[in-house]
Batch of 4 targets.
Target 1
Amino acid sequence: MTATVPVSYALFLAILLFGIGTVGLLSRRNVIFMLLSIEVMLNAAGLAFVSAGARWAQPDGQVMFFFILAMAAAEVAVGLALVLRLYHQRETLDADAADELKG
Amino acid sequence: MLRLLWLVPALPLAGFLILMILGRSLPKRWAGVIGAGSVGLSALVTFAVAGSYVGATALPDGIFVQRLWTWWTVAGLHPEIAFRLDALSLVMILVVTGVGFLIHLYSTEFMADDEGYARFFAYMNLFVASMLVLLLASNLVLLLLGWEGVGLCSYLLIGFWYQDPDNGHAARKAFVVTRVGDVALTIGLFFLFHHLGTLDVHELMTRASAQWTVGSGLATTAALLLLGGAVGKSAQLPLQTWLPDAMAGPTPVSALIHAATMVTAGVYLIARTHVLFALSPTAMHVVAIVGTLTLLMAGIAALGQRDIKRVLAYSTISQIGYMFLALGVGAWSAAIFHFMTHAFFKALLFLGAGAIIHSLHHEHDIYKMGGLRKQLPTTFWTFVAASGALAGFPLVTAGFYSKDMILGSAFSSPMGGVWLWLGGLVGAFLTGLYIFRVVFVAFYGEPERELERTPGGLIRGPLIVLGILSIVGGFIEMPGTLGGVHILTGLLHRTLPALPEHAATGTEAWLEVAASLASLAGIGLAWVLFYGRREAVERWVARPAGATLRRFAHSGLGFDWLYDTLLVRPYVWLARINRRDVVDHVVRFIGDVCLALNPALAATQNGRVRWYAAGVVFGAVLLVGLVVF
């Protein structure tokens, strides 16, 4: 077997990416950047799957990544459409401006 | 003909239904015809049934039962809609339909100017139907249905002129006070069913005498509970306060419900369950003592009234006291005999009073009547006949024979005694005094005012018929010393046991003389005081002691005041301090907490996506934290 990266490194990277995504999601008000942050978080999750699949030599991890990939593509399509509608209606991309559903 | 028995209550019920549904669209004439006609037909059927019952000697135990259908079946209790005809219920339904018909006839003229003519007859018919169900019921559940039915009609008819709030108040009082007794009666029924497992009257009596010994605590409890119901319905001590106020209803109602029929339902109930009472000497003593005290108390109270109808109301309470006295000493037949004669003469007294009130612009005060002897001769003579019967005027009136039978039994029965007899004798004296006070004050002297109108044939007819009955009604039962006619007791003894022994003929004659003297003394004193020397009475009443005594008698010996102080006021006071429902605060606390938390939780729903995302993250961290650590 060739030299491998220890799985803990990969998981650590995944946690780091997920944290960066989360912070980005919570701190940015621009909807586009929030979507980008979500992409980062999704990929962090994907990384965790793939590394885990490699660790136990199972294909499941990679299969799950494909699912995530497809889901992310769909999410971006819907998300960007919503962003467009938002921009048309409010002339802004500030997520906090759309708070009609407040209790 | 016995098979027609079901028609007896069904006809008035049909009359009620027709009048209730079509009442408003029927012309008055037709409403009267249906109202009086249904009861009249019912009376005819009753006479036919009575004829065949007297002729039928082959009936087992003298009981004819007509089963219509089973009412319900629950947990071993399956009361039937079944009518039971025996000597006791036969005499009762004869009086109820007969007197009831006369009163309905009278009402067609008496109520002619009233707005609620059809409504009046609808209620009256419902009353007669309920009363007949009560009397004919073969089990106590059906009896209770009739019992509550007559209570409802009593309420509806006392408050018949509902525009006046006082009438509504009197109606509610009557309903609530009798309800106190009804609760005891209902508990009594549960008690009987629990211990004996049936509520069919015949079966119940058989099992009671088989399972309970004389004087057992269970029998006493059951009898006293039933007595509670009887006391409420029959306006005996301590639940008598509703009857004088019940006079707020139209006068025919007072005659039918609050004199002749409904108020004697208690007497009927005790006679119906006499086996149970016979098992409990204690309960019998209580019945006799309640009766004696009531007849004395009501006799005194009647002396203090100015309203003619209130005099008669107290008189009714007093006379039912006599019936209770008779029941309490085991003289069942005497009680039923007095019920019958009382129904004749007391209905007549009320109808006579109604005729006066009708002719005098609704005047109730006897001191504002005066001199009516010449103005209303028919009313005068029939009223005197009824008063004589009520006072027990010797030999020629019905009341003499029935009252004499009660007094004789009170003296000679093993359960009676000198004290009970003496109470009854004083009561007889008071009766003569208070009723002839009314006669002399209202009918003699100078006329006080012009008549508004004179009563027509439909009012005078029933008066005359009842007047004749008040005289001859007693001749069907005469003591051994006076010919010894025993038609009524001969019939009643098919159902009710006779008193074990009779007094010797010498004692019997002596008792009759004493009773006659007491009643004559009362009448004589009334003649002296209220015919001859009225000024002397006025002077005496003007003095402080006399005024106090009169007020005391006028207030019905202060029972209303007593109950007001002991029960009504504390209750109203409690209700007032509990206006904001203390118990409700416990429930309302939950709502208050929710309302207080609402603003805080609503603030979290601010509509911002990032805030929600933060919430999700926080939740996820919390969950993961819980799982990991």
Target 2
Amino acid sequence: MCLGIPGQIVEISDHETNLALADVSGVRRKVNVTCVAGEGLDALVGKWVLIHVGFAMAIIDEAEAKKTMDTLNALGEAQEEFEAMFESDRAMEGRT
Amino acid sequence: MKYAEEFRDPKAAKGLLAQIAQVIDELGATKEKPVHIMEICGGHTHAIFRYGLDKLTPEGLEFIHGPGCPVCVLPMSRVDECVELAERPEVIFTTFGDAMRVPGTKKSLLQAKAEGADIRMVYSPLDALELARRNPDREVVFFGLGFETTTPSTALSIQQAASEEMANFSVFCNHITVPPPIKALLDDPHMILDGFVGPGHVSMVIGVEPYRFIARDYGKPIVVAGFEPIDLLQSVLMVLEQMRDGRAEVENQYSRVVQDDGNPVSIAACDDVYEPRPTFEWRGLGEIDSSGLRIREKYVAFDAETKFSIGYGKGAPRFVPEPEGCACGDVMTGRLKPIQCPQFGKGCTPEMPLGALMVSSEGACAAYYQYGGVDLEPAE
């Protein structure tokens, strides 16, 4: 919850609600990009962002993304984030 | 040199550790009379234990683990209210998974779920919004929990619900903010704090200005830090150098992510949606002025406190004492080390937590339990 997780913006999926698709270590996830959309939504495609509970909170560079991911892996937090995402997908379907 | 394998740049780590030892010497700090540095953020606490930084740094330096773990400071009466909401038949209660195992006075959300309450662990408030869209005949309540890293996401979700005029979505807002408890700890005459390692991602949202009072009014250094072990060592060194040089400033070690003025869009969304509560209860710390956020009148339709007539100051008594033998309050304020609590590892484990500090991996007790026994060989 505190550390967030880095992801790369793949496409803008909804211009009206500021939603984008991000690639988080191979997992595609819907993220809200309102907080990082200063230069326009389309400029975000390909950028790396730090994602907190589904919201991109800062634009970072690729090297920082990699360093952050390594730290999250070492702390076991990356696994926790992915588990939370998958658990949430199940919760949406009422399968828990 | 086990630690050498753990660090991305062992040479830099060794250099920083040597510099830290040098400044600790210059300050005349010793095991008996150490310098006390508080890392505010639970993520930093986790990293310090994971990398054994408390053992690699000199004995004249002591880390005090701060209140920056939102699950750890969640009072039992708030958990009780979550359970009460979740047990209403019309409600789908959505929460981050971290909150599930926090003990209430009668049960945790995990126990309530096992007994049949419709509780869903969501990754994001976006998923709670989607659940509300898919279940128009149910009331979806999102448990707003966390510091400034999660407050903007809840605020933006409330704004989104308002723009869609959703009638079945509300937020049980228990968001809290970092600066007020720091002020409360500095005002506590029993606390000995010489400087702070400031939270990285909270500062990414709020910037560095909100910490100015720490340097200006209390004369203590604070350095906003990243999460890598090298970041932490660098930040500790910066705090110690300020002390040695007789400076008290707000410095930003994590400028590659943290802008001095934070994230203006997040700040604006939070200002639009929330207002500070006059006071709010923190587990282990008691009532702290202006430390909690509530939803403003203009978004009252999305405020679960009003919708279900529950929440802070309503119904149940405000203060519930900790379970017998639980020393979370003393650990939280640095009076006791986790292992000095009589229940540590006995009546209180991560599997069966008695106190909140054992629940989250960001809690000092859970981190100590997981990594405390790891012996790192000293440098060279």
Target 3
Amino acid sequence: MEYLKVLKEIFIDGERYMYILKGLRFSVGVTLVAAILGVMLGILAALMRISNFHPFKKSKDKKLRDFNPLEWLAIFYTDLIRGTPAVVQLMVLANIVFAGFRDMPVFLIASLSFGINSGAYVCEIIRAGIEGLDKGQMEAARALGMPYSVAMKEIIIPQAIKKILPALVSEFITLLKETSIVGFIGGVDLLRSANIITSQTYRGVEPLIAVGIIYLIMTGLFTKLMRKVEKGMKISD
Amino acid sequence: MIKIKNLYKSYGKLEVLKDISVDINKGEVIAVIGPSGSGKSTFLRCLNKLEEPTKGSIFIQGKDLMDDKTDINKIRENVGMVFQHFNLFPHKTVLENLTLAPMKIKNMNKEEIEKKAYYLLDKVGLKDKANSYPNQLSGGQKQRIAIARALAMDPSVILFDEPTSALDPEMIKEVLDVMRALALEGMTMIVVTHEMGFAKSVADRVFFMDQGTILEDSSPDIIFNNPTHERTKEFLNKVLNR
């Protein structure tokens, strides 16, 4: 009973739980915007990677003939993002790229940074999903006389989605947890709200555990939803 | 119906097909035999441009496959293909496997296409599987569906790429029976196969391929009983006297 009083002191007094609620809103908001941006960027980059665009087809040099600038750009993007820590990307965006925009809200910078970050991973997930399919599927479709676009739409993409969705959800779970680094650029997210409560109450453990549980509940909901979707898709397999 | 002249195909430095010239007439059943790596499958896959030939010419019903202006999709509508690993569409029912391509490409109404699909399923003896998914079928059944799928486009020639090589021994006969029936109906067929019995009894002509060329092109009777080339003899010896 004593301990309940302590908890009340930490979270209820001075309406400190509001920090957590605001932090929660920030974290979920950034994750949502970043996820949408990430999927859009990811699809775009994946399309670029599987594209068949060879502007120098007629060149004499074999390397130049096979050069696909769209693919090159997409590879550069994914390698750059996947090869550097998200914190570095976030700091570069906030302190260098948008250094001149003092009024730009942290929320926007964070969403943009995580969206760009997530896009690279989503690209790889989509590409792996499409390229991981049996080559025979495309061949069979083409051999029946279907144009590439029809074969993609009717045969490849419906099958690839089944492989892509589970990986995509786990990417969003990672994204949600990764947003906890926005404290570096002054964003007040879930984790940062715990720090604020600690600084006011001198209690370090409880706020951390509290936000940990909230993260766990959110990712748990995600996972549960995903299992349902997966089950639904297995029926036609 | 099919005219092939000086066909070459190479991957980098590796020449897989070397100077193949051959004519195939309407209604003929051709069995293509030979050791693995001799270019049989590549030859077959050049005929609907799943492989791009390096040089040479292929004419199918007067249309030049090597001409960039030729719509390859139109040619493929007319040239069916059956694969070693069936390649049915796992996310579609058996019926949808048959109707999808005609529905998307041909200007026919749905009822007509489905009626035809049921007729073809009946023909391969699998009418009751119309609403099953491919993974609920045995290998032999899958391959019969794959043949029906090719037939649904009303092709004038069908290419078979080792259609029985991935099947359990028990299931080979049911697929060969369907092919035999097709041959009797006068379908033009080019069959890459290791089934020598089938080649002997059904084919009008047998191509023996070795190292990227058609070494011998004669009637099954001559190939199996009195081959001209030492290499053919050697191959048949190995295959038939197991």
Target 4
Amino acid sequence: MIMDLILGHNQFLGISHISEDKARDREKKFSKIESIYHIVEAAHDLGYKGMVIETHPRMIEFLNYYKENRTFDLDFYLQVPYIHGYIQRANENGIGDLLLGIINQTGVIDAGSIAFRSLINSVKSDYISMALNLLKLEVSPFSDINIKTLLLHNVMTDVILSLDMIEPVRQYLEYVTDELDMKPGFITLNLSLLKIRFERWGISPSYVMTPINPKGYDMNPLQSDVERAIESFDTNIIAMNIFGGGAFSIEDVQSYINRFKNINACVIGASSEENLKESFEAFS
Amino acid sequence: MAIVGMGKMGLLHSCIFNGLNESKVVAICEKDKLMASMLNKYLKNIRIYQDYEKMLERENLDGLVITTPVYLHKPIIDRGLKYNLNIFTEKPLALNGGECRSILKDKKNCISMVGYCRRFMHTFKLANEIIESQALGKPIYFNSQLFVSQIFKKGKGWLYDPKRSGGGVLIDLGSHAFDIFTYLFGDVYSVHAFAKATFNSLVEDYAVINLKFEDNIIGSFQVSWSIRNYRLPELKIKVILENGTITVTEKYIDIWSEFERGKLKKGSNVFYKQDLTKNIAINIGGPEYTQEDQHFLQCINEGKNTICSFDEAAKVNFIIDAIYSSIISERVEKVSYGV
């Protein structure tokens, strides 16, 4: 099976998993949206099939630039919600400010609109509906690009799994499929637990994104458990953290990842054309 | 297990204790009505309370986890001790050394732990092993910093009220570093510190501290939650030892050795957390949180002290008390550990 390669997005947000100094270097390197666009375009030209994106303000800026200057088409794997920003904003100014911030960011409704009132009413009665309404607002800037799947952030997925909450998962799947007309997916750092829970709940996700790498980093609880789960899971599996943010060698990663027949795509967090090319050659 | 306070840390520990095979969360206490009603609706196997006293009265618990604002730690710990519970509380242990002394006096034989999670990060664990083994000789001097981009305007809530938080960045973020210093270098003998409040008039946003340890190690430390371009908190410590240097952060450790010794080669030996961390039973917010919760459970089962017991964690409050005294007096102040 030929794996699709998907461009990761953390490097564009000044994130590095191995060092904060490197993270700051990346932040400088990608301080202009044009430099992000340049790497994404180079990835497309090499044959990368898609890109991970989230509702981070920086990614929305990139998206607007992409729409205005579009010279190529790409599938996007949209990660929701924007957990880091929500926690920071709620910590600073409370939940009310957080809600208003999301609404303002989307620019699609105002405080007097029916959608806003329905959102406020839902806060008082049905929490999942409230979360799904927020989700709809959050993904609204992405309505005119090709979203391959909507991926629930690993923090949300893993909280739901650990607390054994079936109802939010059922409603998320139904809402994303019927209301947003997208394919629902999940990101998890606990693939074995996800498989056990989903089988018990009778749920088959379209896409699951999870860390897969030669050192077993974030393949929990054991690398061997996750390997078995990958081989026996009937879903589209997307491998992430394959290089451990740069901690593992390309040779080790290549021989490990190529062992699996059931991985559909790999996320590559490249920040230069050279990185893009090196990874593309290793996996194609 | 029962959890008091369902903020970010309460949710995190609830997920871990409920997700581990060796424990189950049976009760949660959350004062906020909206949050309590939401939890009640979706957590079918967990009883939800709004009053922790009622919860403690009704539930038969092996352990209590306290994840409330700091000013509530002591009253809830006191109550938990009346029921002879094993107690885990988020850091810091209490508002100040005086409260800690009172807790230590009353704690009897309970298994206790404070959430100084950096002790469970493999990079800092390895630094501790190298220092303890004296593979690079004895530590002589260190410099260090702990920065995050968090506060750039006046904030609202308990965190900015020293009566409810115990202070500013020194106790909120800095407490993690003082715990790691104690872990790596032993007890602090004296401190000399300066601080500056910029965005919030009642609590400090920046502090610089010189420290002298019982073992004659000396070090310097800068801490702030108002430094730009630090997306995540980063504690960086550079230790000069007799035969080498260790640079350690949450994400990597660089051990520079003057000569080949055991597994260490001459020169630089870099290990990333990805090389050192594996086989985590469940990962919700970082492997270190799972491993600290498992350590608490293991110590309860074996009836032994945790590595972050109330006694150990109180030292952080004692150091911070001396630092606040030094900021006021502008002199070197000795740390008083006496209970």
